[in-house]
Amino acid sequence: MGNCNLRMDNYDPTVSLNRQNFQFHYPIGKGGFGKVWKVTQKKSKTTYALKEMLKSRIIAKRSAHSVMNERRLLAILRHPFIVNMHYAFQDRENLYLVMDLMPGGDLRYHLSKVHKFSEEQTKFFVACLVIAFEYLHKNNIIHRDIKPENIVLDDLGYAHLTDFGIARVFQPENSNETSGTPGYMAPEVLCRQNHGFAVDYFALGVLGFEFMTGRRPYLGKDRKEIRDAILARQVQLKRSDIPEGWSLEAADFINKLIQRKPQNRLGSLGVEEVKEHAWLRDVQWEKLFDKNLNPPYKPPVADNFDSRQVMNGWKDEISSSTKEASNQGLFNGYFYDLNLQSEGVNYTTDTSKIEKKI
């Protein structure tokens, strides 16, 4: 299960891709740099999600490294429980990232509708993410931005992990890597300490807490307030906190994930201790991996996104064109074509070589 098929992409593309290769239907999401569109590739008639990112916004937000990092990582990753890349290309003004289409929408959207998930639904989402973590961590990659917005559902209700902008190949000295979403960040990241794969399990615990109670364990208006809340006390679910219909095993699982000290956290010794916890012992891992189960949460057939949020503009004002031609060099190598990769171009399974490019 989850064997790595890592691929290197240090070749010069011989086939050009451009916007005209795709039929744009309508926006289905919005990020910090642009919109996500539902598109159909004209030649293959295959439908995808296409992330269109304005270079000037990326440069203004000093995020060129992040978008290049995401493309490089996605070029070496392929798994049924992550959102996989099929193409990447650029023109003078935009970057384009063509991904698996996940019509079920993200869990933030659904959480805003239902406020809480049931224990059965939460366990299913958690198990999907554990399978994704197993693949990433065995291949030395920390996601570092686990949150409901970055978990998307396919049409059946299986959860997939997306957004690898701040994911990293693990390095022992990484205290300078402090990006993330404060409400889901592990204490060691908030406190600018070296950190490992356990940060993803802390965020998984925050998700479980939020799905159970409708709120996160540590609250605050900004990063400092959340850090202070974490440092002030160790939050744990008490018996009185457990909603009707939830088990003690579920609360124990969450409590062990949100331990402030990484060495005390479930998952610090690897994925097997997570899978062996009493709450997950009945998960049929092989059937889940093969998607032969009946997901307990079914996304509606209709579009699963907030059209108002998608159509809203940005609060800041950034020019729609790059100001200096020299800025284009920041995006050298922003290209990917899965069809070329499948022909066997320069593959590797050595992640130590990948970090040099990232």
Automatic annotation (TrEMBL):
Keyword Transmembrane helix assigned to the entry: answer is: no
A Pfam family the protein falls into: Pkinase
Q: What is its EC number?
A: 2.7.11.1
Which InterPro entries does the record match to this protein?
A: AGC-kinase_C, Kinase-like_dom_sf, Prot_kinase_dom, Protein_kinase_ATP_BS, Ser/Thr_kinase_AS, Ser_Thr_kinase_AGC
Residues at which ATP binds:
61
Task: Please list the GO biological process terms of this entry.
Answer: intracellular signal transduction
Q: Which SMART domains match?
A: S_TKc (SM00220)
Query: What are the UniProt keywords, alphabetically?
Result: ATP-binding, Kinase, Nucleotide-binding, Serine/threonine-protein kinase, Transferase
A GO molecular function for this record? ATP binding
Q: Which domain of life is it from?
A: Eukaryota
Which reaction is recorded as catalysed by this protein? L-seryl-[protein] + ATP = O-phospho-L-seryl-[protein] + ADP + H(+); L-threonyl-[protein] + ATP = O-phospho-L-threonyl-[protein] + ADP + H(+)
Q: Name all AGC-kinase C-terminal domain ranges.
A: 281-346
Q: Which CDD domains match?
A: STKc_Yank1 (cd05578)
Residues of the Protein kinase domain: 22-280
Q: What's the family?
A: Belongs to the protein kinase superfamily.
The protein here is known as non-specific serine/threonine protein kinase
Classification lineage = Eukaryota, Sar, Alveolata, Ciliophora, Postciliodesmatophora
